[in-house]
Model the fold of this input.
Amino acid sequence: MTSSPASRMASRITLRQLQIFEAVARLGSFTAAARELHVTQPTVSMQISKLCEQLELTLLEQVGREVRLTADGRKVYEVACDIIARTGMLGELATSLKGEVQGDLRIASVTTATYFLPRLLGAFIKRYPRVEPFLSVTNRTQVIERLRNGSDDLIIMGRAPQELDVVAHAFLDNDLVVAVASTHPLAVRQGRIPLKALTEERFLMREPGSGTRLAVETLLAEHGLSVRPAMELGSTEAVKQAVLAGLGVSVLPRHAIERALTAGDVVVLDVEHFPLRRKWYAVHLKGRRLSLAAQQFLDYLCNDATSVLDAAASNTGGSAQD
Ligand code: PGA
Done:
């Protein structure tokens, strides 16, 4: 390969310099970058100066207390991020060639999925003990924000957002049912209950931003109906406990109440248009390059989630998801 002035210049740049530059640009601070990378602030300053000298460009400028990228810096930043990511790929390639799956696995999930996701994750980690899982649990609106920011490898949710360009892999059934405590007057009602009857009951609703709430409101709106919640609760578990306490009627994922159903504490009502047949999806932005660990987890969800949960259920003599 001939050595041009540009390649001679590039050959003096180190990966460490690019990592330091990336951290300073992302965090807007030499101090924060030094802290994150466990080096001293003078080391950060020195490496940035060297990088600027080698490229003969001014990459950063001080604006007030913040360090910002210059126009040249922005272009260099993009290439630096690409080089850092590709170097990471090299590491992953080496591990995959050796047949090892390892590294961080960042999952964000809506609260309702916590009835089965930790169990699935646990079985996965048993298979691949060198994978380090991080699970963030929040509601639909917030996971969509995380999806937009690309903070996680995969998002587990009940419906892919239509406003983003994503790939969604369905991996598990998710039926939503209408439930009341077995002591509730509706529990003994005979025959099919019209949808409208729900709007006349004390309805227990998830908080705004919840995917379950969105599904219920969408169904009602499709039939020209709406409901004024008697209570709003911030998680599926809270709604379930309120239903069990006889505080009203609600729509819950069947997998969240299997145990209470078996125990006879809760009754699923035969309401028009229910159960709402949905799926659980593993979602990521289109074009996102999944790490080996994330790809492996995705394949595992799509191929094994149902059987892993069924096996766990038969071992415990009930639902593995509840
Ligand atoms: P939620 O989402 O926990 O935010 O209600 C569940 C779903 O989308 O099915």
User: Anything to note?
Assistant: Residues 71-97 form the longest helix (27 residues). The mean pLDDT is 91. The two ends are 62 Å apart (CA to CA). The chain has three domains: 5-82, 100-172+279-316, 176-268.
